[in-house]
Amino acid sequence: MAAHRLCGTMRAFHSQKMERVALGVRQFLGFGSEVVRGSMRRCHESAWSRHGKVRRVGVELGERKLEISTGKLARFADGSSVVQLGETSVMVTAVSKSKPTASQFMPLVVDYRQKSAAAGRIPTNYLRRELGTTDVEILTSRLIDRSIRPLFPAGYFYDTQVLCNLLAVDGVNNPDVLAINGASAALAVSDIPWNGPVGAVRMGIVDGEFVVNPTRREMASSTLNLVVASAPLSQIVMMEAAAENVLQQDFCHAVKVGVKHAQQVILAIQQLAREHGVEKRTPAKLFTAVPEMAETTRQLAAEKIYAVFTDYSHDKVSRDEAINKIRLDTEEQLKEKYPKAEPYDGIEAFNAVSKEIFRNLVLNEYKRCDGRDLTSLRDISCEVDLFEPLHGSALFQRGQTQVFCTVTFDSIESSIKTDLVTSALSGVKEKNFMLHYEFPPYATNEIGKLGGTNRRELGHGALAEKGLKPVIPKDFPFTVRVTSEVLESNGSSSMASVCGGSLALMDAGVPISAPVAGVAIGLVSKANPEKQSEIQDYRLLTDILGIEDYNGDMDFKMAGTSKGITALQADVKIPGIPLKIVMEAIQQATVAKKEILGIMNKTIAKPRAKRKENGPVVETVRVPISRRARFVGPGGYNLRKLQVETGVTISQVDEETFSVFAPTPGAMSEAQEFIREICKDDQEQQLEFGAVYTATITEIRDAGVMVKLYPNMSAVLLHNSQLDHKRIKHPSALGLEVGQQIQVKYFGRDPTDGRMRLSRKVLQSPAATVVRTLSDKHSIAMGTGSNQAADTP
Known about the structure:
By secondary structure, the protein is of the alpha+beta class. Helix 8 runs antiparallel to helix 9 (316-337), helix 8 crosses helix 10 and helix 12 (455-468) crosses helix 13. 38% of the residues are buried. It comes from Scleropages formosus. It is found in: Cytoplasm; Mitochondrion intermembrane space; Mitochondrion matrix.
């Protein structure tokens, strides 16, 4: 009995408190030290009994094998798994608290971290540590979160954390999909309540062939990057895609193939969970509406809520105010009738009834709260060229969603440089197109902090960027930044950013291959009473409002041209959606997308023929190797001076070509004058290879003497090794002084660094030579005339 009590204590406090607990139990029970140590050892073995055995399953995906294991690493976590594909391995842990949190949403935190050590690199920052969180890590964390969140039980408000730790990265296989499968496996083998598992794969299209989990090299030539997460019975819980104008039928086929392979991953994880044999815990409380209070709320407020939802004169703000007023009145009445009930119970009861009425309007009466039918778009208006100083601008209004977009050009050097691990995984070291999305608090009539970018803003901006990137020319000579500021928001601001960004790009004169539009499709469904995992009835909604997103079951965003799809994101709020509904959503989005493009084309249908006159300019300048040193200047002095005085930046393209970027045409004119002055024709063109000239010493240095062949020439170094056949440490050994004239032989410019090559040494031999001066082109014979046979220094 004493040993049993001790084992229970050890399980509760884990290893970090083992010694302290052992001491307390020893004093309380009066055990001898040997007895206690033996009991502790038996308890430790018992605690690991169900975790100590390593279990492993494999899945054949295409020509490669995905391996999932558990039981070896991180065994104090509620659940842990390691997923490996090729030489890339990811460990994922899941831990959930046993006490609930006062919240109105599932408090789930997913953190994905890229480790430089996993890729065989050391961080380049000052501390040589991983600092902060990169955009790629945040976007991957969101990808995992959206894949697993829908499968937690309704009302499970317990703090839960899923951590993804990269163990090894081979630079061939991307770890993000492995992390999704790892999170699924970690939750499946844990005792955390979760209605999984899910399986995830990446689909690519390479040379017309559909490829499962393509390698980095295959992805470089793939026209599709689709990540699909599926639940059992071929239900879809998450999709994220970037595509290069992929046709609808090809995209749909890729989704079906992805779901098929994801089912194999699910079967493997189910097998792993069965072998692990952990029973799911029973939550102390699920925060769902109390049936009795929900019925009372229905009697008190149902008619009032219905009246608000069917009053089409309401806009977002007035509708929210009207519902909130009914909510406050109802909650007061509930407090009087149920004085012992927790405040949350009243809130949840009202939310449940309000949601039920809203959904029944759509399902049974085919009504939407703004009066549209299920497939109609909101009113759309477009404007471009709003402000003259901007390189490109547009205002896109769809209902009460308003987005202001701008386009800014800068030099190629302004492109984003990716971090070490991202470069190793994707092969992309920099990108010269970016879209930044901002959602200020006033867009929803709220007060909040400005500055920084939260995960939602980063995710919405990344999706809009995916939608527009395929139509940007790959050889465009500028770095392009699109900003999207949401001025009003009532649903689908990310897709409005795609539309506004496309208009702004055309206004800026960017030669995009085709205009792009985006739309969001919603879903309201009814589960089968006998089998909750099946959908009995449903309605798809085109161009959803914010309230339809909140009360609905899916936010399905799709962007593309009139020809095909460029980006897609599906956020699902129920444990899975059948393929049939997903295919219908794609078709409905395609119809709406073409209608939106027709409206946008009335404002601007194609890119402007020319960029605005105040826009930046890029030109190439050819600088002969003989003048390159003078053009660049000592240590790049001339280039830095040019940038400070004119604002232009210069980058070298090849040995003789430089690219000049100027923010305005005026700055380019100043830069051209500066360059002409630096590189103007001078007397060096008259110098002849192999001829002897009289040089004037201007400075004595330890390494040699600085000499000029003509007055306006920049002095060049004549090294000690070229002064005399004798080895000397200092020019003074030869009696050389400043102002003295010496004879040197000219051997042109060094082809690698452009330096002038002169030698006095070759003239110290008895061989005859020819002396030339720039003022007198006639030869003066000084011997046999065999100077051409002299050695080059």
